[in-house]
Design brief:
Shape: globular
Strand content: under 5%
Largest sheet: none
Number of domains: 1
Distance between the termini: 22 Å
Oligomer: single chain
Radius of gyration: 22 Å
Helix content: 55-70%
Low-confidence stretches: 274-278, 384-392
Number of helices: 16
Order of helices and strands: HHHHHHHHHHHHHHHH
């Protein structure tokens, strides 16, 4: 008989909402001005970078929670069917809108015809002193193929949206999990050793085996293209799941948390580089550590059914359910909307809620119009004697349930 679904916990939904809005506010108020200097004037700036990493930690935790319930191949297809179609739609929409907006913001004429508009090169120098990058057909192909990281450092092609880096990293991690899960040699000791390797080996490769400054761009493309700089977030997510099941001692889990925080700090803010973002180093590291501790409380403790939180639980759950779509559409499309609002004369304190509200609306449209129906269609069994089991776990960065 089918088992009843586990009651949804407000603690996990709240963590996902806090993390995804940390990403959105950081991109809108801080990263936008780094890419487009005119996008300033907001009432505050969120310079800390930790939201996406926490979302990946939560994703890894629920990989273990859901993978153990069914067939690994079917589980992997379930993930692909939910993530990839919505991503493809977001890529195409972002490409078309960005082409239109970037040509306009740069003060260039649109190439004639539909093909010219989509793939042509506008003629003449930009009339705007700060032109926007106009994506090309190669950028579109690279983003649809999820290989952006392999060409961005050699300036062959670029991300249409900076947030897209998470999807290929997650798909590689999901594939690895599906392949490793059913192995008979996967003992507890080997699993724990593998988790430590996921944290330590990338650090050794980056800081002891090769010099990132002199080995670029090929080594960097391989290192970042394979997502080695983010393996620690998957390792700590799995380690916390083991700890939540009392298969890892408290002291061992604490060591994993400390190692993950240190790895996050070193991978995002390496000691050998003096990046402009270094001013946000400690807010980023402390923010990651605090949210990681809250993940520990959600993993092992009771649900956060506090009186005040219980009243807003439906709104939190709804936002958590659309967070993957929200994550897909908020950044580059948000910059475009912010520039259009700036040209219309709106001050920063008005632009910010409009951009965030538009991101929520766009996230809902992607979730309700693409992610959920396409996932349902791709995973529905054709034989009535094999009923589809609904997957109610978070599946991705900001992934819906």
């Amino acid at each position: 008989m089918p088992t009843s679904p586990t009651p949804r916990r407000i603690s996990w939904d709240l963590l996902r909402v806090v993390a995804v809005f940390a990403v959105i506010l950081g991109h809108v108020t801080h990263q936008g001005a780094l890419l487009h200097p005119e996008l300033t004037g907001y009432p505050f700036r969120v310079t800390a970078q930790f939201g996406a990493a926490i979302l990946l930690v939560i994703s890894a935790f629920f990989v273990c929670a859901s993978l153990r319930k069914g067939n690994p191949r079917r589980w992997l297809w379930n993930r692909v069917a939910r993530l990839v179609p919505a991503y493809f739609v977001a890529v195409v929409v972002t490409y078309v809108v960005t082409r239109y907006a970037a040509i306009s913001f740069s003060g260039l004429p649109y190439p004639p015809g539909v093909t010219g508009f989509l793939f042509g090169v506008p003629q003449g120098p930009p009339a705007n002193p700060a032109p926007w990058y106009i994506p090309t057909g190669l950028d579109l192909v690279a983003n649809l193929g999820m290989v952006q990281e392999w060409g961005v450092r050699s300036e062959t092609f670029y991300y249409l949206d900076g947030s897209y880096w998470t999807l290929p990293v997650q798909l590689m991690a999901f594939t690895g999990a599906a392949l490793l899960w059913p192995r008979s040699w996967r003992t507890h000791r080997l699993t724990v050793a593998l988790l430590w390797a996921l944290i330590l080996v990338p650090l050794l490769l980056r800081f002891a085996v090769f010099d990132p400054e002199t080995a670029r761009p090929v080594v960097d493309s391989v290192y970042y293209g394979l997502g080695l700089h983010r393996l620690h977030v998957f390792a700590i997510g799995i380690a916390l799941w083991l700890w939540s099941k009392k298969r890892l001692a408290h002291w061992h889990a604490a060591l994993f948390v400390l190692a993950a925080v240190a790895a996050q700090d070193l991978q995002v803010f390496p000691l050998h580089r003096a990046l402009p973002q270094d001013a946000a180093r400690w807010p980023s590291t402390i923010g990651f550590a605090v949210l990681l501790l809250l993940v520990c409380l959600a993993a092992r403790g009771p649900d956060w059914r506090f009186p005040g939180l219980a009243r807003i639980a439906p709104a939190v759950t709804w936002l958590a359910g659309i967070s993957y779509g929200l994550y897909l559409v908020h950044q580059e499309l948000g910059y475009i909307l912010a520039r259009a609002l700036l040209d219309a004369g709106l001050p920063g304190w008005l632009r910010l809620p409009v951009v965030v509200g538009a991101a929520v609306l766009g996230g809902w449209a992607v979730t309700a119009g693409v992610e959920r129906p396409v996932h349902r269609w791709l995973t529905t069994r054709r034989k009535p004697e094999e009923p589809q089991v609904k997957d109610a776990e978070p599946v991705s960065v900001g992934g819906g349930s």
